[in-house]
Every structure is written in C-alpha cells, then in structure tokens.
C-alpha cells in the first residue's frame, strides 16, 4: 500500500532500465492529486549532496509539491552541472505529463555515486510510470519496490488518524548514519494541513527516528525525506495527534531500515537513561552504536560490555557528565556491568533473539534517549567489498 | 632489540601464565639502569581508563620512572578498587625486587576488559622477569613479544642520533582510534635529557603519529606511551634532532601498527593537501579514514571515490572550508575524481599493492596532513566476532 494508503495520491513503480539488474523495477512516481499540494522536506547535510537533492531542496522551499519521481540504479551525485541538468530534465518531463510546472516536481535518486544516469531511460520510464499511475495498494507497493537497492524487502507504513490517513515508503540499508539516516523516503497524508505544519511535524519526527539509527556510520549524499499532504480527507487533524502520527510513521520506517541493515544478523536497541540531558543520552547512545568492535561482538553473540563502556568513555565529560563508577549496563535484561565493573556473568545473556536490547543507566540524571544500530557481520563486508559496480 | 638498543636499559619477556594462550610470553619488564631516570608519558583520554593507567599516570607525574612492567592477557580495566590494588601490588613487587619505591614503577596491561588479573601469576612472573633481565638484543625482543595480543608480529624501532640512541616497542592491532592509537608503547633513550624535554618531544611526536592512525575507530581504555631516558650515553642531544628522532620513532611504530591492523589486507595512506589549516586537513583525513564503506571497498580492491567524497562531505564547513566542486582525489597516482566529479576511470588504478595512497586536494589553502588506516575485511569481523574470550 505505502504512499497510496492516503487518499488523493496515485503512484507507480516500473522497469525503466536504469538499474544494472535486468528486469528490476527502478523508477517510481508519486503524484498528489489534491485538492492540496502542501509539502515539506528534510535533506542530507552532506556537502557533496547529489544533483536531485539540490533540485528538490529548491522545489520544496515554497511548500508546494505536485509529484515526486524517484529512481534506483544511480545516485546522480558528484555529477556536476550535467547531473543537475538531468534532474531538471526529469522534472520537466514529469511536469509536462501532469500539465504543471517543473518547479513543483521533486526528484530523488539512489545508487552508485559519480555517474550520470541513462537519461533517455529515465525520461521514457517517466512516461511509462505516468501511464501506470493508480491509487491502488498494488501501485503503492510497486513504487516501494522500485526504490530498493541493497534493500532485501520493501519498507512501508500505513497509519490511521481521526478521519485521515498517513502512508509512506522508504529505502535504505547501507550508508546509514544518524544524520538523516534514510536515503529516500516519501510520506503521504490526506489530512488538511499547511506546509508549515508539515515541516514542523516532519522535522520533529525525523529527529527521533531517522536521526537515531546507524547502520555503518556513513552519511549519504542523497538522503531525502518528503511529506506530502493532499487534503483529500477534508479533515483538519488535531495538531498533537498529527505530529505523533508523523513521528510514528518515521519511527516505523526507521525501524524497518535497521531490520534490513546490510548483512545484519541482530538489530540492536541502545537505550541510555539517567543522563543529565537528552543530548547527553543521545551522545552516549550514538558512541556505543558506532563501535565496530561491539558490533562485531554482537554478531558473534557475545554481549561484550567492555566494548560498550569503552565507547561510552569516549564521550567528553562536558557533553555527558557521569561517573564511570556508577554506570550499569543490562543486555537483554541481564545486568552484566554494575558500577562500571563486572556484574552478572555474560554467559547468562540469551543472545539468540534477533533483537538485542542494551540498557545503559548513567545514574547522573533523569534524561534518556534510544538509538538503534545493526551488528557488523561477514555479510556486511561481503556486500560492500565484493559487490559488482 | 627494541628497548635495549639504548644503553642503560635491561629488559625481559617471560611466560607468566596470564594469557589464556598456553606457553605465550605475557609479561615484560623494562628497567632503566640510569644514571638518569627521567620519564614522560601520554595516556588514553577514555573515561573508563584502566587501573594501570590510573596508577601509571601518577607514577609519571613527577618525571621519574625506574621500571615498567607490562602484561598481555588482561587489561585490568573496569575492575574498580580491586583492579587498582592489583596494579599497585604489581608495582610494589617490582619495586622490592629493584630496591626502589613503588612510586617509580609504571604498570601497563592489555587484553580483555572487565576481569581482574591472576595476580599470583603476575607477581611470580615479575620475579621470573627480574631474574631474566638483560641488556641484550634478545632480551629486548622477548619484551616486545610478551606484550603482543592480536598482533601477528612484534613491533620495534631502533634509531641513532648524534652519539645517542633511541629504541622502542609497541603493541596494537585492534581498538585503534586516532586518539592515542597505541595500546602499549615504551620508548627508551640513552640521551641526557630532562623529563620536561621528554614530555615535549613525546607529546609532539605522538600528535603526528599515534594520533593519526585509525584501525577501527575504537578508543582503548589502556593506551599508554612512555618515554624513558637513562642518560647512559653521556650525550646531551641537539633539541631539534632529538625531537625529530622521537617523532620518527613514534611514526615508525604507528606505521607498524597499521601494517599489522586486525585482518587488514591494505594499508591506506590518506594525504589531504590544499586545506586552509592543518586541523582542517586532519579532520578531512580522519573522516575518510573512518568510513566503513570505503574500507570495505578497498578490501575489495575498488578505489571507490564516491565513498571518499561522501565522507569528506560530512566535515562541517566551519571546520574545513572548501568548495566541493574543486576537490580532486588521486588513488595510487590516478586522478579518479576531478573538480568533485568523475575523473579518469577507476579501472586504471592498480590496487594490487598492499599500500594504497589516497591523495585529496581540497584546493582551498596550503595546509596538509596525513593519516593512515586499514581496510575492513572479512578477517577483521572474524577476529572480533568469532574470538574466544
């Protein structure tokens, strides 16, 4: 279902011959049929941001987006003016098909960095996708398949508010760092909301979801999260409920990225409590989530708490004040580190579940934060060393 | 030879039964026979620093060290007061054997975090080591073997100044981050120098060596670098020459760590030129060195410049001002990224040598810096996931 769960949206996912994988759906189109065309976006902070990011940032700036075209099979990043011209030509083609302005068409790309797209295939694919547009669950599902790269499964969300709906899709598996760890995401709603409301809801929702997951610590050049409102339900939502629902959609999609992280055999939830501030808790969680040594240990089913506390120890005291002699660490409910030293034996920890819970109590305050990461496996190295490109 | 290359030092490396590896040399003793006992030290900034670090920091504070006892097979980190008592008891035993004060005996440990040492074995080993003390090349070699953990070979250095010598040994293979990426290091000299001179030379030497290598981004709890002067040559060195020689010793040892990084199949030198400041160059080099995706690509012999520039793009503009459209990247002499986009085809790059040279020109200024890292291989994951502990 994904983006077509909300009323007022049609979508398509087609084979355009952009991906090197023969017969793979690699081009998606999402159209907002109104009556509203309110939109908000959040983009990568990478200084080598891709041409489609440069294009779409401008498109979203005025709060209006009529359609989004997305492709896998090529990131169109580090492609200079020629790459930017490709994004623009793609938007112009979609605009002509829809009878609107190119300035209302967002463009997203994902795939290898540094190569131009096969533009003829993209533009022909846009026409094919336009012909295939539908508001059916299948059309939404097709779109969510077309944006996959190393993802092993599509990632979608459907949520119902009081008289309105939210749908969404995301792709992302590697190059996932906690600075907008997303790759490409489109969330749709049929609620009656303004662009300003959308931007506030999205920024807040992203902050506690996509910005709190880490597969490999690598920031992408193409990260884009778009939130589009059609207003087709005719319902003006309660602002708090709407914000919560957008945040829930982001969290669900972020969690699905972790569940499909490249090569991952364990999804790791790191909760830090007892911090002086939420920022302090977040800094500690992110430090632990970034530890290659811990992530290898977890892939070997060892709840190696030494690698947890040695990561905590890298967070500067002014960022996260705590006393190392008061820190406790539970893994899957077993307190294996007590007062900064050995607690119960780590052999007591059941590491068979895919989900691993690391609960760190700094015993320094009342603030907390949760981040997610994956373990580091042979398969991750295989995917990123032995790939064909 | 290692630490016994400089006159006035004796050393030993013995089997003490601390390591779980049957028959492995696991305890080293290095004694400064004078006439001087000047010393300097640099330690990990990890807030969960090990008991021997807490102990040795105090010992070195007054600029005098008579001997250093080092063990592999256990880090004595996160072991609380009982761990500190073990470090102190070890120092007291060595002090009694040498007829000096425990306050002049530094202690270093490396191995698993979170467990106490088998103290009886350590103390008995100290006696065995004391009996084995010698100033021979073999004694120095034995010491360098005794501190190895996942190291596959000992790492030593011998340099000659104008009438004086510098020797040294280091251990380190994993848990190597560019904040004192060392684990354990002892450098000796027979030059006549004060503790103040030693501290200045060591701080400067470490800054451009151990602080510029990164195996896996993980900071250790036990990092210790000691520089000891016996004055036995009777030569007061030219200060600049001495500083350069200490820096050269540190660089040689740091380079050896990279050459023996856990599971590494490529040693990667990342040189950043054209930066506005050395700090900016260093920040860019470290960002690239920390990229798991790039390190996987290199292990697969792919000079994936997209993963280089996407890492550069994570450095904030206020830290390293540059224009992404002016950046060039050469890998092993082939300019595969020009003006922030594709340059020559990456298939032209010969990736067969173990050493890979990544030369990044930011074209923004005249400052430069070089950092080293290793590739990320299946074997790294194997060592850190499937280990026995």
List keywords for this structure.
2 domains; 7-stranded mixed sheet; alpha+beta; 5-stranded mixed sheet; 10 helices; homodimer; 16 strands; 32% helix; 389 residues; L-amino peptidase D-ALA esterase/amidase; Ubiquitin-like (UB roll)
Describe the structure.
Chain A has 389 residues and is of the alpha+beta class. Chain A has two domains: 2-259, L-amino peptidase D-ALA esterase/amidase (4-Layer Sandwich), CATH 3.60.70.12; 267-385, Ubiquitin-like (UB roll) (Roll), CATH 3.10.20. Chain A contains ten helices and 16 strands. Chain A has helices at residues 51-61, 80-98, 119-132, 137-146, 195-207, 239-259, 278-289, 292-299, 305-312, 378-385, and strands at residues 9-14, 27-32, 38-43, 67-71, 105-109, 155-160, 165-171, 184-189, 213-214, 224-229, 267-275, 328-331, 334-338, 341-342, 355-361, 367-374. In chain A, the strands form three sheets. In chain A, strands 9-16-11-15-12-13-14 form a seven-stranded mixed sheet, sandwiched between helices. A five-stranded mixed sheet of chain A has the order 3-10-8-7-6, with helices on both faces. The longest helix of chain A has 21 residues, at 239-259. The interface between A and B is large, with 65 and 65 residues. Chains A, B: Its EC number is 2.3.1.35, 2.3.1.1.
